[in-house]
Amino acid sequence: MRIRENVSLRQYNTFGINVAARYFAAFNNTDELSARLEENPRIHKIIIGGGSNILFTKDVDGMVLKNEMMGIEVLKEDNDYVYVRAAAGENWHGFVQYCIQRNWGGIENLSLIPGCVGAAPMQNIGAYGVELQEVFEGLTAFHIRDMKMQHFGPSDCAFGYRDSVFKKEYRNRFIILDVTFRLLKKPVFHTSYGAIRQELEKMGVKELSVQAVSRAVINIRRSKLPDPAVIGNAGSFFKNPEITVEQFQTLEKLYPEMPHYPVKKYPSSADNDSGRVKIAAGWLIEQCGWKGFRNGDAGVHVSQALVLVNYGKAKGSDIYRLSEEIVQSVQKKFGIILDREVNIL
Ligand code: FAD
Ligand code: EPU
Q1: What is the pLDDT of residue 88?
Q2: Residue 274: per-residue pLDDT
Q3: How far is the CA of 53 from the centre of ligand 1 (A)?
Q4: Is 34 labeled as catalytic in the residue annotation?
Q5: E strand or H helix that includes residue 181
Q6: Quick one: the chain helix, strand, coil %, rounded to 5?
Q7: Which residue in 79, 107, 206, 230 is deepest, having the highest Cβ count within 10 Å?
């Protein structure tokens, strides 16, 4: 695929930020990828999938590489599991539906998360009580400088809450090419999180199935999160912060209604008490008065304060500045420093 110059990235990021890339190329296979890398060894590279967890704050003085490698393949199966490999360019929700149609369990709670399969391990995507790491078998990645393939198993990825080795020390060093999942032939359902049970009841579901859980998750997500096709956003802008039990106990006296959750240890162990408590960042931001705030075209969503939005022509720097103000006000009121989930470029 040819390299294009001076390309607007507006359609390649769900925030709808209109920056330009000096060079832009999509690739469908590793030969194309190797060729693009070999031809341009000294140019800075940024790899993107669906652009749903990115905030562009300036033009890209380098090459944006869009992974469009496709394909889903069953590698092996036994009595309990099916091992499925999906290429990085596959749409995540499309892959989830593919598995649901075959009654393979494990990722139904991750329905409707935007983006591509290749970015899913990057932040160990999670929703409604399930994280990617629970079904992750391995991945193949391409080292940009060494031009070599490398296999990563679960213990190589340092998965954490919205975190992995690819978001930290290996950021921009590897291009994930495919991901292998270990899915259950006899699904186990996770319905205790959030409003899943109520939604299943509302739907009149008598017998649980991966289809029903997926549908319930989709309904809840549609009622809570803004659709990027309608209003620019990248989902939760910040992570839900984790604080010590002591800090929590002090805050709880002042704010007894503060939503909070126990933090599980990574990787899960028999003793699951991490001594830390997770706080809902959306609640903290709302308490600081930001919900529904708008300055120009940059704003905080009217019904979910954890989601920053672009009403149309906001620049990435406008959204970033707003996020700075939010961080400062939450720190001032609660003594908690919010950490951004979205990748700032
Ligand atoms: P991109 O935004 O294109 O890239 C994200 C990062 O990964 C960038 O740093 C990029 O350089 C890197 N990257 C992308 N592809 C590759 C690759 N092949 N190899 C190496 N690095 C790569 N996330 C959740 O975890 N849970 C949710 O419930 C959730 N809900 C969301 C709801 C909405 C409305 C939106 C807009 C976003 C939501 N997200 C959620 C965030 C986002 O969908 C996920 O992080 C998703 O995995 C990003 O995929 P992407 O292909 O769009 O990645
Ligand atoms: N809340 C408020 N005000 C708000 C928003 C939320 O008080 O404006 C409160 C809610 O009432 C609730 C709590 O905060 O008590 C949690 O809210 P919600 O259930 O909407 O989930 P969240 O913590 O905001 C997280 C993930 C989402 C994921 C959902 C479901 C993070 C950073 N976000 O959101 O992931 O879909 O739970 O599991 O962990 C993403 O990562 O982009 C994302 C959307």
Answers
A1: 97
A2: 72
A3: 4
A4: no
A5: strand 174-184
A6: 25, 30, 45
A7: 107
Query: pLDDT > 70: what percent of the chain?
Result: 97
Indicate which residue's Cα is closest to atom 46 of ligand 1: 115
Is CATH 3.30.43.10 the classification given to domain 4-67?
A: yes
pLDDT in the model for residue 267: 54
Tokens describing residue 176 = 């994930």
Q: ω before 226 within 30° of 0 (cis)?
A: no
Q: Which fold has domain 232-344?
A: 3.90.78
Return the residue matching tokens 């989902």: 235
Given the residues 52, 111, 214, 236, select the one marked as catalytic. Answer: 236
User: 279 CA to middle of ligand 2, Å?
Assistant: 10
169: annotated active-site residue: no
Q: What 3-state DSSP class applies to 324? A: helix
Pick out the chain residues at pLDDT < 50.
269
| Residue 234 DSSP one-character state | -
| Cα gap 44→23, rounded to integer Å | 10
Three-state DSSP class for residue 191:
coil
Fold of 72-184: 3.30.465
Q: Where are the domains of the chain?
A: 4-67, 72-184, 232-344
Q: What is the pLDDT of residue 42?
A: 86
What type of residue is 232?
A: G
